[in-house]
Specification:
Distance between the termini of chain A: 25 Å
Distance between the termini of chain B: 52 Å
Number of helices of chain A: 4
Shape of chain B: globular
CATH class of chain A: Alpha Beta
Largest sheet of chain A: 5 strands, parallel
Number of helices of chain B: 24
CATH architecture of chain A: 3-Layer(aba) Sandwich
Helix content of chain B: over 70%
Strand order of the largest sheet of chain B: 1-2
Radius of gyration of chain B: 25 Å
Shape of chain A: globular
Oligomer: heterodimer
Number of domains of chain A: 1
Strand content of chain A: 25-35%
Structural class of chain B: mainly alpha
Order of helices and strands of chain B: HHHHHHHHHHHHHHHHHEHHHHEHHH
Helix content of chain A: 25-40%
CATH superfamily of chain A: HUPs
Strand content of chain B: under 5%
Number of strands of chain B: 2
Radius of gyration of chain A: 17 Å
Order of helices and strands of chain A: EHEHEHEHE
C-alpha cells in the first residue's frame, strides 16, 4: 500500500540506506518524502577537555568540524534527493541537532505524515558512531505507523 | 546577543559562600572541622568564602535587577556565574567531600603498607573535583546560566601554569627541561611515527592516520583539535580519535597514581612518567595532583613536560601537514609561518616571564631553592629539645659515613642545623633509612626549623593549587560520556597498542634513568 507523505530518518549508514530504499518503494507516485537528518548532540562535546590551544586554533577547529559535517550531510542529501526524484517522489529535508529520538518525535508531530521509516541498529561489533536511537520514547510519541527497515547485514 | 541570564543562581551561590564563611568564623563549624581534620584549611575556608561570596552576591544582584545590554560588559559579567559555580564545587570538594573520604578511608585501616585507600587511589580534592565535573555534565547537564562561565576553567589552568613559573630555580628548569626534551622528543616522535606506520599497515586513510598520530603522540585532544583541519580529517575520524583519547586519559588519571604508589615512585619520577605516558594534557595535571595532593613538586615536573609537549605541537602539526600534502592531491597548501604563529602557546611566554621575574629575587630571598631558603637564626623554641638530643645520641653509633657523623655532631652540639651543606647531608641520612623512625622524625623537624618558605612563594603555591583545582573541575565538565563512547574503530585498536607501549616504555625508562635529584 503506497503512502503519500513519508517521514524518512536517515544519516547515510548501511542501516539507514536500507530505510531509504524501503521508503522509496513505499512512496506513492506522486507522493512525498521528507528527509530528517539529525546531527547527534555528542558533537557539542567534541572539543573535549582541550585547554592548551589558543582561541584562533579552537575557532578554526570548530568551523572545520561544522563545515565537514555540513559537507557530509549535503552529499547525503544530494544522493537521496536524486534517488527520490528518479522514483518520481517529491523530496524535502530538514536538519536538526540533538538527541535522535527527540528530534524524530518532534519532526513527526510537526506535519501530516502517514508513515515514519527508520533503519535498524547496526549488528553488534560493526564499526560506527554510537548515537543509537532509543525506540521507546519514539513509539510513545508517535500517532502514525512506524516502519523499521531490516539491516542489510542482519 | 545578551548573555546574562536573569536567574537567582549566582545570588544563591553567593549567599551559600557567605554562610559558610560566617559559620566557620563564628565557631558553628568547629565540630565538623575537628571531625574532618581540616583546621589547616580554616583560613582559606573563611577568607575565600567571604571574598568570592561578596563578589557573587554583588554580581548576582546586578544580574537579577540590572538592565543588560549587548556588549563586552554583559559578556564578561555573565561568565562569572559559571565561574562561581565551578568554584563552589571546588570549595565543597576540597573542604568537605575530600576530607570526609579521607576520614572514611582511614577508618578502614591501611591497605598497602602504611598507605590508606584514598592515598593509593589518589582520591583527593583534585580527582574528586574532576569526577564531580564529569558527573554534573553527564547526569544533570550544565545549567544554561553556567554554560558561558565554564569556559573560564581553561583560563584558570593557563594562569596556574604561568604562576608556576615563579617556583622553579634556574637549575631545576635546566635539568627538568633537558630531561623533558629528551623524553618527549623520543616518545612523541616515536609514537607519531608508530601510529603512521601502523596506519599504513592497516590501510587506514591518511587523514585518520594523521589526526590519530597527533592525538596519540603529542598532547591528546588539544593536538587533535590543532591537527584535524590540517589533515582534513573526516567527522567520524575526529569522533573516534577524541573518544579514544578521552577514554585513555580518564583511565590513566586513575591508574597512574595507583601504579606510582605501588612502585613507590618519587615525585620527579612520577611527574616525568605522567608527563610522558598520559596522552591527554589535562589528565597529566590531574594525575600529578592526585599523586601528591599536598605539595606541588610532582605538578612542577609534570607541567614542564606538558609545556615541552605543547611547544612541540606546532612542529608536529607542520610535519603532518607536509606529510599529508605529499600523499593527497587535494590537500591544502602549508604556510610554515602561519602554522607556527597560530599554534604557538602564548601562555608559555607568561610562564617564562614569571620565571625570569622570580630569578631576579623579587618573590623570594635570593638564596631560595625550590621555593625555600636556609636561615638558622631561629627562636629558642625551635631548637632541639633535650629528649630529641637524647634520641639522636642513642643512635649516633649507627652512622658510618664521616660527613654524616660530622653534620650530626654539629647538630647535637648546637641543637640546630648549622649550614646548608649540613642540611643536605642530614637529609641524605634520613633518606638512607639508617636511623629509627623516631630519630628520622627529629632530623626532619630540625630541617623544617631552618628551611623557610618565602611568604610570596607560599601565596603563589596556594593560588596555583586553587587555580588547578578550579580549572580541573571545569575541564571535568567538558568530558562527556557521549564523546567517550565514540571511542572505536581503527583508532581504538592502534591507539590502544601505541598508548600502552608508550606508557609501559616510558615507565621503564623513568625507573631506570630518572633519579629524584634534579
Amino acid at each position: 500500500m503506497p503512502y503519500q507523505n513519508i517521514l524518512l530518518a536517515s544519516h547515510g549508514t548501511p542501516g539507514a540506506r536500507a530505510a531509504e530504499e524501503l521508503a522509496l518503494r513505499l512512496c506513492a507516485s506522486p507522493g512525498g518524502i521528507h528527509h530528517l537528518l539529525v546531527v547527534p548532540d555528542f558533537w557539542t562535546g567534541m572539543m573535549g577537555d582541550d585547554w592548551l590551544n589558543n582561541v584562533r586554533t579552537r575557532i578554526t577547529y570548530g568551523k572545520y568540524v561544522e563545515s565537514t559535517l555540513e559537507r557530509e550531510l549535503q552529499e547525503h542529501v544530494e544522493r537521496v534527493c536524486a534517488e527520490a526524484e528518479g522514483a518520481g517522489a517529491r523530496y524535502s529535508y530538514e536538519l536538526k541537532v540533538g538527541q535522535p529520538a527527540e528530534c524524530l518525535a518532534e519532526a513527526a508531530g510537526a506535519a501530516g505524515y502517514d508513515l515514519v521509516v527508520i533503519g535498524s541498529p547496526r549488528p553488534k561489533g560493526a564499526a560506527g558512531l554510537r548515537s543509537r536511537m532509543s525506540l521507546d520514547p519514539v513509539v510513545r510519541a508517535l500517532n502514525i505507523p512506524l516502519l523499521v527497515a531490516p539491516h542489510p547485514d542482519a | 546577543m545578551v548573555y546574562t541570564h536573569k536567574h537567582p543562581a549566582l545570588l544563591i551561590m553567593g549567599i551559600i559562600m557567605l554562610a559558610m564563611g560566617a559559620a566557620t568564623s563564628s565557631g558553628i563549624m568547629d565540630g565538623v572541622i575537628n571531625y574532618l581534620h581540616i583546621s589547616k584549611l580554616v583560613w582559606e575556608l573563611t577568607s575565600l568564602s567571604y571574598v568570592f561570596g561578596a563578589i557573587a552576591v554583588a554580581v548576582g544582584l546586578w544580574h537579577l535587577f540590572g538592565e543588560h545590554r549587548e556588549g563586552n560588559l554583559d559578556y564578561y559579567l555573565s561568565s562569572i556565574t559559571g565561574g562561581i559555580f565551578i568554584l563552589l564545587i571546588a570549595m565543597l570538594i576540597r573542604w568537605f567531600v575530600a576530607p570526609y573520604v579521607a576520614v572514611v578511608s582511614k577508618s578502614l585501616g591501611p591497605v598497602m603498607g602504611d598507605k590508606y585507600l584514598h592515598d593509593v587511589m589518589g582520591l583527593n580534592y583534585v580527582v574528586l573535583g574532576i569526577l564531580a565535573g564529569i558527573i554534573i555534565v553527564n547526569v544533570f547537564r550544565i545549567p544554561a546560566w553556567a554554560e558561558n562561565g565554564v569556559r573560564l576553567s581553561r583560563l584558570g589552568l593557563k594562569t596556574g601554569v604561568i604562576l608556576l613559573g615563579t617556583l622553579y630555580s634556574a637549575a631545576e628548569l635546566r635539568s627538568l627541561g633537558g630531561l623533558s626534551v629528551v623524553m618527549i622528543g623520543f616518545f612523541v616522535l616515536g609514537s607519531v611515527g608508530l601510529v603512521l606506520w601502523f596506519g599504513a599497515r592497516r590501510k587506514v586513510p591518511n587523514s585518520m592516520g594523521g589526526v590519530l598520530s597527533a592525538g596519540m603522540g603529542v598532547c591528546g585532544v588539544s593536538a587533535t583539535v590543532a591537527a584535524a583541519p590540517v589533515v582534513q580529517a573526516r567527522s567520524v575520524e575526529i569522533a573516534y580519535t577524541i573518544g579514544t583519547i578521552l577514554l585513555w586519559g580518564v583511565g590513566c588519571m586513575f591508574l597512574f597514581p595507583v601504579i606510582g604508589h605501588v612502585l613507590d615512585m618519587g615525585h620527579v619520577q612520577f611527574g616525568a612518567w605522567a608527563g610522558t605516558g598520559i596522552l591527554n594534557s589535562a589528565q597529566v595535571a590531574g594525575a600529578a595532583l592526585a599523586y601528591q595532593p599536598n605539595g606541588i613538586e610532582t605538578l612542577k615536573v609534570a607541567e614542564i613536560f606538558n609545556i615541552t609537549r605543547v611547544l612541540v605541537l606546532p612542529i608536529i602539526v607542520l610535519w603532518l601537514a607536509v606529510w599529508y600534502v605529499k600523499r593527497e592531491e587535494n590537500a591544502p597548501g602549508v604556510s610554515v609561518g602561519r602554522v607556527v604563529f597560530e599554534k604557538f602557546p602564548m601562555f608559555v611566554l607568561g610562564f617564562l616571564l614569571m620565571f625570569a621575574l622570580s630569578s631576579t629575587g623579587i618573590f623570594a630571598p635570593a638564596q631560595h631553592y625550590k621555593g625555600k631558603y636556609f636561615d638558622n637564626n631561629i627562636a629558642e623554641s625551635k631548637l632541639l629539645k633535650s629528649e630529641d638530643v637524647a634520641v639522636l645520641q642513642a643512635e649516633a653509633g649507627k652512622v658510618a659515613r664521616e660527613d654524616q657523623k660530622a653534620a650530626l655532631g654539629r647538630l647535637l652540639e648546637n641543637r640546630k642545623v648549622m649550614s646548608i651543606d649540613d642540611d643536605d647531608v642530614l637529609r641524605g641520612l634520613v633518606n638512607a633509612g639508617v636511623l629509627s623512625k623516631d630519630a628520622n622524625g627529629v632530623l626532619k623537624q630540625a630541617h623544617k626549623s631552618v628551611r623557610h618558605t618565602a611568604k610570596k612563594v607560599s601565596a603563589f603555591r596556594n593560588w596555583i593549587t586553587w587555580l588547578f583545582a578550579f580549572g580541573l573541575v571545569g575541564l571535568g565538565m567538558q568530558i562527556t560520556i557521549a564523546s567517550i563512547r565514540q571511542a572505536g574503530g581503527q583508532p581504538l585498536v592502534i591507539g590502544g597498542i601505541v598508548g600502552s607501549a608508550k606508557a609501559v616504555l616510558s615507565l621503564i625508562v623513568v625507573l631506570m634513568f630518572v633519579r629524584e635529584t634534579i
